[in-house]
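Q: Sequence in, structure out?
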Amino acid sequence: MKNRLIYIGLFIFSSFVFTGCDYLEKQPDDMKTDEMIWASRIETEKYLNNVYSQIPAATLQQDDPWLGCSDEIDLTWNVYATYNINLGNWNPSTSFYLKWASFYKAIRASFVFENNVDKCPELSDDLKTQYKAEAKFLRGFYYWYIIRQYGPAVLITHATAVDEDWSNYSRAPLDECVDYICQMMDEAQTGLPLTWNDNKVWLGKPTKVACKAIKAEALLLAASPQWNGNTEYATFKNADGTVLASTTYNENKWKKAAAAALEVINIAESAGVKLYKNDENGNGTVFNPYKSVRDAILKNWNCEIIFGRSQALAGQNGWAVHASPGPNNLGGVGPTQRIVDAFYMENGRTIDDPQSGYVETGFAATGDENWNPQNLNLTADRIKMIAAIRSGDAWGHWPGEWNMYANREPRFYASILYNKRVIPQLTDDVTKRNYYSSNTTAAKQQDGYGRVEFYYGGVSRSSGSYTFYPRTGYLVLKNVDPQANMRDRVYSTPHCEIFIRYAKVLLNYIEALNEYDPNNADIAKYWNMIRERAGIPGIFDVYPEIKGNKEKQREFILRERQIELCFETDRYFTTRRRWLAHTPDTGNDSDVYRKYGEGGRFWGMNINGGATSTNSFAYTGFYTRTAFETRAFEKKMYLFPIPQAEIDKGKALVQNPWW
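A: Exactly. Output:
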């Protein structure tokens, strides 16, 4: 039937990011036909936009588990699915983050598009080639998202009929899924440019570099302990006996993952991809590590972004509202003590290193060398000082702040808002900044700066009906623009969502390389590039004794990844693919410093300590490591369960282990 309705060839999408997709939203009797779609460039491109539309947001979403179920974040609100997931209250019939069906709708749509785009007479041959390459990239990208959430996928490699008998479709082995993702990325990159810098209207579309980067991501997953020699998946099989996970360790998988990441590195320079630094454009600008690591996330379409998307303002603004302190914001995206402890000191040493200079208790007598670089008078030059903080010229701890937060590395200050720190994302207006400060008998703290008060009774930790506050005693500062005015909800210039950036590729490379060639010189070369941008010494300058030791280097590489990619959703997947998420809480006091484990006690500051009438910044009881939550984690939770409704549809579809 030449004029069959387009809704017959494509499952209806449940949600849409792009506008202008009316033909997929109308009732069947009002749908546009095949002929109408493929005859028009506008309608054909709308169809492609809809294939893109199932890419989930990279920022905080109400049903997104990757932050709230990681060991680096607590979300205060029990309306989020993460609350029940962390308590273990879920099963295959629970409607938590149901992406299986929507990803497959997009995959099937990619075939429909690829098989029909040549019919459009209003597209040039070059555009048809490019668009088909985009469809292949998206197909591989969605499969990548499926396997990292669910494990082995049902591998559909061709257009399927409307009346397809899905009951006979079974899951493919994980390695086979990864091979197909790599195939899609290899094929897609031949029709895509290195960069869209000469056509910025299309920023957000994939490039050759993006294809190679996603390929490297998939190969890293396949090489990691979850899928490389994991004997605990020995019974993970299809009904016909097909083994879905390799239980035999294969070092060559690490070599393939490293080679794929190195491919990205080798073409990065020609594509203009590199680690972002604030002085990259010259003009006499002085390198500032704090600005560099902060703005690598905030500066729109900067040189570090490999694949991203122009962000809907609702997403960007929503993140700022959720991560900014009250009053007038929701203030509940709370970093755990584990991530706070992970950051290095300014000398590049860990806080448990006797040579680090770390002090757990007491107030700092002096400030960081960067806290007031212009030597401004805190009273007379208040507006200048606030401007310096917001611009990033002034950073680091102030005199009188808790020693736990003193002399830490720049990434710490770019990522964590801690008690008594000046809130960057407020207007310069002194009166409005005082809105965030107490003026009680015990706490006369209204000095025009607006320091955050997380202690019991503090303005951002009210003990009354206002209950939006971080249970950990911290808020995320990363990805919150300091030029916003969150007192009045006046937002800053839009910046894009980032799905993958160059720093992650470098970390992927050195992690894979370390597993089979720990003495390789590239480990130090690319690792130190990240640390140099972060303003701390090279890893082997600080810890020469770990050089060449695979196990010790691995621990520090994973720590570097934890810090550099914090709050970017990577941590959730890293602890799982490395098979570390079930590390137990032994119940001992030392577990307050536990580095891994998604179950057991999670720690923050003592936000409920003391009396509301006497607490102030001087109250030392706040700075006590306190368990805010005990989480449940079982091995079945390494993977999301396939929705029971999908299991019921197909006789050959097996559920994930232990569900």
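The radius of gyration is 25 Å.
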